[in-house]
Design a protein that fits this description.
About 75% of the residues lie in helices and about 0% in strands. By secondary structure, the protein is mostly helical. It has 20 helices and no strands. Helix 5 packs antiparallel against helix 6, helix 11 packs parallel to helix 17 and helix 14 packs antiparallel against helix 18.
Amino acid sequence: MAKAKPKAEGPGDEAEGQDGGWSWVLVAALFVSTSLVFGLMRSLGVFFVEFVQYFEESAQAISWISSTGLAAQQFFSPLGAALCNAYDARVVVMTGGCLAGLGLILASQATCLVHLYLTMGVISGLGWGLVFTPMVATVMANFTRRRALALGLGFSSIGLSSFAFNPLFQLLVEVYAWRGALLILGGLSLNIIPCGALIRPKPRPKSPEKIISESEPRASIFHRVSSHLELSLLFERPYITYTLAVTLLNVGYFVPYFHLVAHSRQAGFSEYEAAFVMSAAGATDILGRVVSGWFSDLGHFRFIHLLSAWTTLAGVFIMLLPVSSLSGSYTALMMISLLYGFCSGALTSLVFAVVPMIVGVQRVMGALGLLQLIESGAGLLGAPLSGFLKDVTGNYIASFMVAGSFLILGTIAMATLPHYFSCKDPPPPERRSPADTEKVLHPEMEQMNSLPSDLSH
């Protein structure tokens, strides 16, 4: 049992989960930081029209600003995880908050689109990548019994901040113009720094790799880098299977966010009615995150089974979205949208909560970073694929059908996980020893080390 484990185990061990006290302060920090990352990213569309008019560029060129920021956030997530494994999550998150704010502050002085790509895209994106994964992994390491609820509460800020930030950003643009608004948002993003400061630094035992580095420098450097990135996970079937499942569902997950309003307009509903459909789905999304976290932690069902159920239902409701509007019934479309929003929110926190059960809590940081890196391509593929199907068919029916089918394919991939049909979670795998990891990642390293010193240079 977890309580029987000695206190001296690693800082990410299950024994560290407290489920109370300071752990809930970290949930509040996750709540604020995620709102200042994804809530802010979702609301940057307010600046879209302003940039088109000011820089006199095409909509496609302006769209690359937000796309670059999203891609950078996911691309640099493994870097954030590796830095946390090598140093301390507190310093990494605080540095990320500084970069996120700095990028927006520098963007307020932009004179061309390239400047915006580098500031709002690369610099702020790098900052966001250093914030999200470490904060999520820290919260998961501090919870055992209420992990899903903690993540659900922390992620609920994404929907809430999206509602609050859109009108706020519009007001800031009207009062201070886009430059002043970005300057204020940069200052607002600096509030991530105190969120990172709330992470308690933990003593790190001396790593055994230190001994290796004195006698085998090349092997040690390679091993230390791969260890911090947790690259050994890429050779483990359960993790690869789960990553494939999440990648598949990620292809269709974001399609309604991009095209539900446009589909509603095409179905004959007014601008106000079409916008309200997405807002209503966002409201039930928030409810789904909290309810799912609470229900999951009751322990009646395994997390992977609940994730499969919510993913399947979300896929079915995505496929029903265009069907519900064929009759011209706004009520039917609204009902399906509400159900879709609830299920899509319910699966979000479980996607992360399942990870420690597959890789163990000690490797969560690196596992989350690699997961986001791999799934990022699928998330960016979904919207263009949906748009292509709309151009070919003339409507969004095929787009939503294909999007929903990807979520169902994700569920099928989850069903191939080892022990999937068992009623109890299998014990998480033990962390590989340095020697085992080195053999898996670089089997020829032993031969290199055996070469004479004059031939190895």
